[in-house]
Target: 3'-phosphate/5'-hydroxy nucleic acid ligase
Amino acid sequence: MPAVCLIASPETWIEGEALRQLEQTAALPGMRAAVGLPDLHPGKGYPIGAAFLAELVYPALVGNDIGCGMALWQTDQPTHKFKPERAAARLTGLEGPWDGDLEHWRRAQGLASTAFDSALGTIGGGNHFAEVQAVEEILDSDTFAALELDKDRLLLLIHSGSRGLGESVLRAVIDTQGHRGLEPDSAPARAYLKQHDQALHWADANRRLIATRLLDALSLEAERRLDVWHNLVQPVDWAGERLWLHRKGAAPADRGPIVIPGSRGTLSYLVQPGTNNDVSLRSLAHGAGRKWKRGEARGRLSARQRPEDLKKTALGGQVICEDKELLYDEAPEAYKGVDRVVADLVDAGLCRIIATLRPVLTYKVRLPAHKQPGVRKPKRGRR
DNA sequence: ATGTGC
Model:
């Protein structure tokens, strides 16, 4: 069994189930190294917040949301002029298909048509979000300036992925190959990797269109400063050997600065990865990491917090989320403390903090049409 | 995570 490395201080909460998953995954055939990052938590069979180096390609390790990641945009909006309530009122209809010229836009992005075209520009559910943020504190002004960031302008952080496309890519390979590792040069691996790469590109474009839609709705201009995948597999040169690096909820430490978001009720961190992060498989935490399982938060919180209470955060931010279950599931209490998670990375010498970012307005989801009061789904199969 | 299910 290869070395299993856990990057976390004793104060960081790591669930036993997550550690079991990390060890079990590390014991798979062809596995060369496994790393749990401080946001490690249990997933469906495989842990989230982890990186794996292997001789084989394991589609199941990447999971269904291939290409999920974070994009950061610098807007032209002066922070002190922003009116969250007014902005919130303008952010509607982002769950449905974009009303622009989607086909023209898709071609311009170099994206092939898929069955999921109409999902382009949609955030999705779970932990996905679009968040307007203010710069809280700058700790490394040179790197901050080199990124062409301005402390007095609002930022837009997008967390989303490949929606139904990635799910269909994973399902297709699992249906024929199961969860086994694929020989990199085999036909199934080649077919998967081709679709995987397409899903990466699709997810990147999706985040771009999500940003465009929000910015248009708010009449803002912005420029993209970074876009970083945290669910992917890629070939790497490892001490002269060609191996496959799987990241499942693990941000790359070899693609420049990244944002490690906290929850909507805490600061997020803009960090500069160090220059030699091989010990963590060239990876960093991708967020705070869940502390409570999905579906657990409502029972724990509903006695002390009403849904309305959850729409204002401890830092004064506003939350747009009309799905009650999701409102609880994504409550700040459901997450580990991002301060501790980032401190673990810094203490391990893996990155340094460039700046902290404060959530101002977090967009999760408006009520889907079929859940709106008085709206019923049309019956099917009758005329 | 997911056109999530009848």
Q: What stands out?
A: Residues 238 and 278 of chain A are 9 Å apart (CA to CA). Residues 3-369 of chain A form a domain with the tRNA-splicing ligase RtcB fold (CATH 3.90.1860.10).
